[in-house]
């Protein structure tokens, strides 16, 4: 017999990095989880730990097309997150954010589901307010290479708030800052995975620009805890709400931390800075602390160690597979 508090929960993009950790946690909490993914950047292997659990179901589907299912809650995570992936097919990236949001909001409206949007710190663009507070409207190039992601996510936020005002939907908008951990894609070009893979392979660590730009890195378990806290928060807590770890590091500091943890002898090399690369980024998380009672617990050193362990195993397995 089902427990009374068992919910039917849809996770779009559930086969990706964040989504797969979220699915695992929701299944562990006893919910019925429907994961929907088109496998553009995600993979079934990310869901190996839940694939055979009775409470878990996986559906291949692209959220730019309508979806008719019956659920109580929706976590809308579908969208490639790394610049290499989201710039590969920028039109599809915007469609995923915008058409995907419309379809999931339409679904939420029909079945009266509560819906959470995985938004991003990229809505602040290259910020002139530091640290970033939710009230800051951002500094985004509307026609650049990153715009398909940034403006797509901004439009999705607009749609969430219009469905909330116009159709009384229960919405939750999380502005997610850089998150890292096991199951990041080894080739997706994001800085944490790049540096760790390069260090483990004794290849040069590629710093773009002079390495003085900053980011604030949140470990995946802390992020999942915050997303759950937001979904389960009081109805009036709609966000947008910053979720991230406010400890800020330059890319040079990050490279050094990875070298220290791996003991690698990799050299640091400087490469050109990508266009529109934000100079600095750090969340103000006062709202998350006050409204959700949440704060990150995992330090960069601890989180990087766990991530290095994952990549160490992954690359080891790859070597064996190639050798055999
Ligand atoms: P990811 O690329 O690992 O996962 C995205 C998932 O969405 C993949 O499984 C992919 O196959 C799926 N997907 C993409 N387009 C789809 C479509 N049209 N239909 C169905 N599925 C589709 O990225 P992630 O890091 O896990 O990010 C998850 C979400 O969190 C994204 O919405 C991203 O914008 C947001 N986010 C992530 C970060 C971060 O640092 N990881 C930061 C800010 C926001
Ligand atoms: N939609 C969906 N699943 C549903 C209900 C709606 O995918 O269960 C999609 C549908 O394709 C629609 C969109 O969500 O285009 C927006 O729905 P809404 O009811 O807001 O608008 P309308 O149907 O009037 O276009
Ligand atoms: N970066 C870097 N070397 C790399 C990959 C990225 O120096 O091999 C830099 C990148 O230019 C940016 C920062 O690291 O300044 C974070 O990049 P990422 O793509 O991980 O995230 P985002 O720019 O979306 O925050």
UniProtKB/TrEMBL annotation:
GO BP annotations listed: D-xylose metabolic process; UDP-D-xylose biosynthetic process
GO terms, molecular function: NAD+ binding; UDP-glucuronate decarboxylase activity
Domain NAD-dependent epimerase/dehydratase residues, every copy: 9-244
Cofactor annotation: NAD(+)
A GO CC annotation given for this chain: cytoplasm
Compartments it resides in: Cytoplasm
Signal peptide location: none
Keywords per UniProt: Cytoplasm, Decarboxylase, Lyase, NAD
Coiled coil start-end: none
First-listed, main subcellular location of the protein, grouped into a coarse class: cytoplasm
PANTHER family: UDP-GLUCURONIC ACID DECARBOXYLASE 1 (PTHR43078:SF6), UDP-GLUCURONIC ACID DECARBOXYLASE-RELATED (PTHR43078)
Stated name of the protein: dTDP-glucose 4,6-dehydratase
């Amino acid at each position: 017999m089902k427990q009374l508090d068992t919910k039917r929960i849809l996770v779009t993009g559930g086969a990706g990095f964040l989504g797969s950790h979220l699915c695992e946690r929701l299944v562990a909490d006893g919910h019925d989880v429907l994961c929907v993914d088109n496998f553009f950047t995600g993979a079934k292997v990310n869901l190996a730990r839940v694939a055979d659990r009775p409470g878990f179901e996986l559906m291949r589907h692209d959220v730019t097309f309508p979806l008719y299912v019956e659920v109580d809650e929706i976590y809308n995570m579908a969208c490639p997150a790394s610049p290499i992936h989201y710039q590969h097919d920028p039109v599809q990236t915007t469609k995923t954010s915008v058409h995907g949001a419309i379809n999931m909001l339409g679904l939420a409206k029909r079945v009266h589901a509560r819906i959470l949007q995985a938004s991003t710190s990229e809505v602040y663009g290259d910020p002139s307010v530091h640290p970033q507070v939710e009230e800051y409207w951002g500094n985004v190039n509307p026609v650049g290479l990153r715009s398909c992601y940034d403006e797509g996510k901004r439009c999705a936020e607009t749609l969430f708030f219009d469905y909330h005002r116009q159709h009384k939907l229960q919405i939750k908008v999380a502005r997610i800052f850089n998150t890292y951990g096991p199951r990041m894609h080894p080739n997706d070009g994001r800085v944490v995975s790049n540096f760790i893979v390069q260090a483990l392979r004794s290849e040069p660590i590629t710093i773009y620009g002079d390495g003085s730009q900053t980011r604030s890195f949140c470990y995946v378990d802390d992020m999942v805890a915050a997303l759950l806290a937001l979904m389960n928060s009081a109805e009036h807590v709609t966000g947008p709400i910053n979720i991230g770890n406010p400890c800020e590091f330059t890319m040079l500091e990050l490279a050094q931390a990875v070298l220290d943890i791996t003991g690698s002898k990799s050299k640091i090399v400087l490469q050109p800075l990508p266009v529109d690369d934000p100079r600095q980024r750090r969340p103000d998380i006062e709202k998350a602390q006050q409204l959700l009672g949440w704060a990150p617990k995992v330090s960069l050193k601890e989180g990087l160690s766990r991530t290095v362990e994952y990549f160490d195993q992954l690359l080891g397995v790859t070597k064996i597979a190639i050798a055999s």
